[in-house]
Amino acid sequence: MTKTNRRNVLAGLVAAPAVALAAPALAQDVTEWRMVTSWPKNLPGPGVTAQRLADSITAMSGGRLRVKLYAAGEIVPALEVFSAVSNGTAHIGHTASLFWGGKVPAAPLFTAGPFGLTPIEHITWVDHGGGQAIWDELYAPFGIKPFMAGNTGFQMGGWYKEELNSLADLKGLKIRMPGLGGEVMRKLGAAPVTIAPGEILSALQTGAIDATEFLGPSSDFAMGFYKAAKFYYAPGFHEPNGTGEALVSAEALAALPADLQAIVKAACAAENILSLGESEWMNAERLKLLVEEKGVLLRDYPSDIINAAHAATVEALDELAARDALTAKAVESFRAASRHQSEWSRQSVQKFLSART
Hints:
Helix content is 50%, strand content 14%. The radius of gyration is 24 Å and the shape is globular. The protein is an alpha/beta fold. The chain has twelve helices and eleven strands. The protein has helices at residues 3-26, 46-60, 81-86, 119-128, 131-139, 179-187, 200-206, 217-223, 250-254, 258-292, 303-321, 325-356, and strands spanning 31-37, 65-70, 92-95, 144-151, 158-160, 174-176, 191-193, 211-212, 231-234, 243-249, 297-300.
C-alpha cells in the first residue's frame, strides 16, 4: 500500500464515527400535538396568545415538538376544551379556568376571584405562594397539568344596554358572567349565564342577554360589543386578573424527553408575561378608541353595588370552601395570598397611583 493510500484509509476511519454520530440527529422523531382553544382564531388577547404559544413551542423545540392550533369549534366547542385534553382528543388546550367550576369547584380562582389578586399578585401566588401545587392537585384526577400561559390584565366591569343607577337595577338582569363573579351577581339579584366567547355578541344583539363582561378594552373592541351596548362599567371587581391557562395532557407531557418538557414549561411562562404587557398596552389604546370613535360611555358602578358585591364575595368564597377539603385548601391559599400581599400593594401601587394622578 502506498503512503497516499494509507492516508486515505486513515482519513476514512476517522470520518466514519462522525457520520455515525450525526445519523441519529437527522433521524430524530417529530412529535405532533393538537391544541384546542376556547377562543375565536387570533382574537386579540387570548386568541393571539394561544397561537403564539403553539408557534413558540414549535420553534423552541427546533421542530421536534410541533403544535397545531384548532380554534373554538374546529375540533371541539369552546367550553369542551378541558374534557378534550382529559380524554385525549387534544394534547394541549388554551382556555381559562373560570369555565370549569362545574368540574373542579375551585378552578375559577386560577383565573381570578372577585376583589382578589391583581395580575402581578396572581402570578406571585401561583409561582411563589403555593398556588401551583394546589392547581396541580386539583387537575391531577383528570390527567391534566396546568400552566399559566397568558394574561389579559385587569378586566373591565362589563357592557350594559341600560345605565345602572343603583343595586335595584341589577334585579333580574341577564348578564353573561361565568366563574365566581357570576355567583356574586346572582347574590345581587342578577341572572348570570355562561356563553362561549364567540356567541356573546349575537346574544347581546338579540336580547338573549342584557349585559356582558368579557376581558379588557382590546379584546372587547375586537368582539364588537360596543355595537349592542354603550355603557361600559368599571371596575372589574369580579375579575381583577385575566390569567389564561394551558391545559397539558399529563400523559403526553411525561412521554416527552426532559428538554422538551422544559420547553413547554418555559414557553408558557414566557407567553404569560409577554401577553400581560401586550394587553396593558393594547387596552389603553382601545379604550381611547371606544370612547372617542365609538361613542362608548364609561361609567363607575354605583357604590351600593360595590358594597353589596363585597359582602356577597365573602359569602360566595365561604360557600365554595365548604364544598370539600381540597376546595377549602385552595380558597384558604387564595385568601392567604391576598392577605400576604395587600399591605405591600397599598404602600406601593395604590399610593403611587394616587400620587401620580
